[in-house]
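Researcher: Quick sanity check before group meeting.
Model: Go ahead. Protein one:
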Amino acid sequence: MRGMRQIRNKTSYDDARAILSRAEYGVLSTVCDDGLPYGVPLCFVLSGNALYFHTATEGQKLDNILHDRRACFTAVARAAVKPGTPAMAYESAMAFGETRIVYGEAERQAAAALFLDKYAPSLSKEEAGRLKKRAADTTVLRMDVEYISGKAAE
């Protein structure tokens, strides 16, 4: 893989991880069996060296992952046009790695708890318990991150 062309905008590894943690959603890009790229916006959580996603139990993204586990995830934590210019102030990060379906119930439940902490921190324990039970109707994906790159400009 090539390095970043605009090196002056490159963030540190720690800043790239922080950008990923702050972003509300991103785009998971996979490869179809005919070689076409496929990108889909998803909610996600970062935990250690893994990104977790929840998704439907069937569809193009799952077919792609079963065909080729390699994926790229891109997230933007902040973006705004600078007034009076065509330039942007932004923070973005990309993660590369292999993605797989999570089958173990303990890891699925741990991922569900991370999603609740990030996206619904004020839910009551009762409401959170109901949502965790519904997690059985979803597929949890895990991307084992091999490389993270971040970019930012003020």
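Researcher: Fine. The other one?
Model: Protein two, sequence then structure:
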Amino acid sequence: MRKEILSMLRETGGYVSGQELCERLQVSRTAVWKVISQLKEEGYGIEAVKNRGYHLVSAPDVMTEEEIGSHLRTEKMGQSCVCFEETDSTNTRAKQLAEEGMPHGTLVCAERQTVGKGRRGKGWSSPPGEAIYMSVLLRPQILPAHASMLTLVMGLAAAQACNEILREILEDEAPAVQIKWPNDLVLKERKIAGILTELSTEVDYINHIVVGIGINVNTEQFPEEIAGTAISLYQAAGRKFSRAKLTARCMERLEACYETFLKTEDLSLLQEDYGRLLVNTGKGVRVMEPGNEYVGTALGINDRGELLVRREDGSVTAVYAGEVSVRGVYGYV
């Protein structure tokens, strides 16, 4: 009922009468009053005016099932949601929940991770109250060979969501969040998000896929060792953002991109949108794969999500994300 009351208050943008809340939710006025009181105690600014009802004035920046759900407009993605004040890793928890039978689209979030995961076994800094740490459980009926493309699907969805949020605040002056192939998002050429995809498969069957993403939202200052390469939405825009709202927006964009992906089981229908946000396009890149390192110019992606790189001899190589690391020739991007 808490989520439903918050949703109704947000949808109207003004006052909602106690009677309307009671009728919509089929509960007593006392039950509504108790929930409103609880929400106020948790930091929600809710005005109560006689003969007008309740009005949501402000909300705390919290990652809870109710707060995320009150922003959510999806059919499946995020409708099942589990939030932790602290956990080891949202990817680890999502995999555990997958084994317990949680449904496709389950969203796992945390205020803080103690063992945040990055690509290639690296750690992911996860201080509390600043960023989004979330993982989504997917149960697609696709070939295991196609699973790596879901990292790119999530990257596109999250970049679109971040850009929508920025444009709502800054309009035409909003800087663009772009994609650094295959699993990072960048803003002003610094990293704002990282994606990690893990899967459980048989020879020709996927049990489940967990796609995790960390997004730097309200961080004011990063540790010295990453301050030169990391950035947050707050640093770029000069204001704080609702992490729950951005999480919900990511789920909405992911649902749309995921359904498009399933139509062909490749990126052919998303390739144009992805290409517009790909920061690597036209830039020099250094491709580092086991036993082989070379430089070239990134041309974009193909419909399998591979990065096309024109090498110095003029040949074009399709680079598979699972095998290599790609960096800019003169820096991170």
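Researcher: One line on it for the slide.
Model: The longest helix spans residues 149-170.
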